[in-house]
Amino acid sequence: MLVHSRTGKWATWALFFALFLPLFALPLLVILAASLSTNWSGAFPSGPTTEHYASAVRGESLQALTTSLITAVTASVLALAIGTWAALAAASLKKRGKRVLDALFMLPVAVPSVVVGLAVLVAFSQPPMLLNGTRWIVILAHTVLVTAFAYQSVSAAILRLDPMYEQAAASLGARPSYVLWRVKLPLLLPSLNAAAGLCFALSMGELSATMMLYPPDWMPLPVLIFTATDRGSLFTGSAVAVVLMATTLLVLLAVSRIRTKASYH
Fold first, then answer.
1. More confidently predicted of 28 and 2
2. Which stretches within 124-220 are classed as H helix?
């Protein structure tokens, strides 16, 4: 939009495709091509087949997909609740207190996720909070990792809110709880939906911390992809990866539609 000449527009589009295709589109297309092939000995895959997808949507793969969906949805809901509560609390603090809260919630993002996994493993491997070996330790780690993004998204949205709506409701005698539930949260709904989608996508693709924590009966899909490719099943792993990408994309599109309807209302 900032380029007005035709030559400049063509140059901008050419630069975009020159960067987009090799950096983003090509790796995804390679995975898609591998998922539809039986071998890849030359420059291009050969032996087109859909058998890999038959195994990617049943048995162990289907169970892993279900595990990932349950983990991502639960972690996203928990992260959204905690992050929203913390962002609302931070908005009422003074500048120094808000900085402390910002640093606390951004700490899991500032360190590698494997460090977060190790911290959760050490912290919850002894009574009274013995979660090691259960699904809850995986869900807890995912919640810790994605809560920072929910907190940041809601905090930014709160800063953009016009205080006039809250002041008008309060001047009419509305209680603080009523202002929160009927005025402030509805105004934040588009940002809450966006934060939920981001948390879900990040949880669906999380691997490093999960590898340290998952029990045998709670294996998320990224772990299954890693183990499949590690055993040399590259084509099956590619099919499972496409299923993971497609599922995540469908959920994000659904969340985007909800956000669009919410913004209209």
1. 28
2. 135-160, 164-171, 176-179, 185-205, 208-213
